[in-house]
C-alpha cells in the first residue's frame, strides 16, 4: 500500500485518510494528537506515494497554533538605534597614492 498525502489536511481528516489507507499516525509535536482537530499537517514522513506495509506508522507534524510560539518572530526591521555608517571605511584611513614614491 502507498502512503496517502496528509500535508494540508486538518488533524481529523489526516486520521481518517490514514485509517482508510491502513496506516497509523504518530505526531511527536502533539501528545494530545487523538484530541487534535483543527491543526493542519505541515510535514509528513514517509512522503506521499511511498510503498509501506499495512499498519506502518506515518509521522506527521503540525503548524503551531495561536499562543504556542509559532510564527512569533515579530517585526525585525528597522533596528533602532540605527548602526553608525562607515563600517571598515570608518576603521581604516584612506589608502595613500601607491605610485607617490616613484614620482
Helix percent reads: 10-25%
Number of strands: 3
Low-confidence stretches: none
Q: How many helical stretches?
A: 2
Structural class estimated from helices and strands: alpha+beta
Q: Give the neighbour order of strands across the main sheet.
A: 1-3-2
Q: Main beta sheet: strand number and arrangement?
A: 3 strands, mixed
Radius of gyration: 27 Å
- What's the order of the H and E elements? HEEEH
> Distance between the terminal alpha carbons, to the nearest Å?
84 Å
- C-alpha geometry: elongated
Query: What integer is the average pLDDT?
Result: 80
Strand residues, percent: 5-15%
Care to describe what's here?
By secondary structure, this protein is of the alpha+beta class. Helices cover 15% and strands 14% of the residues. It contains 2 helices and 3 strands, in the order αβββα. Strands 1-3-2 form a 3-stranded mixed β-sheet, covered by helices on one side. The N and C termini lie far apart (84 Å). The mean pLDDT is 80.
Amino acid at each position: 500500500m502507498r502512503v496517502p498525502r496528509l500535508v494540508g489536511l486538518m488533524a481529523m481528516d489526516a486520521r481518517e485518510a490514514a485509517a482508510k489507507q491502513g496506516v497509523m499516525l504518530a505526531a511527536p509535536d502533539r501528545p494530545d494528537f487523538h484530541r487534535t482537530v483543527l491543526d493542519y499537517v505541515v510535514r509528513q514522513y514517509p512522503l506521499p506515494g511511498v510503498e509501506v506495509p499495512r499498519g506502518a506508522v506515518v509521522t506527521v507534524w503540525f503548524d503551531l497554533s495561536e499562543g504556542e510560539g509559532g510564527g512569533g518572530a515579530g517585526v525585525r526591521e528597522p533596528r533602532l538605534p540605527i548602526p553608525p555608517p562607515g563600517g571598515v571605511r570608518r576603521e581604516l584611513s584612506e589608502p595613500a597614492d601607491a605610485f607617490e614614491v616613484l614620482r
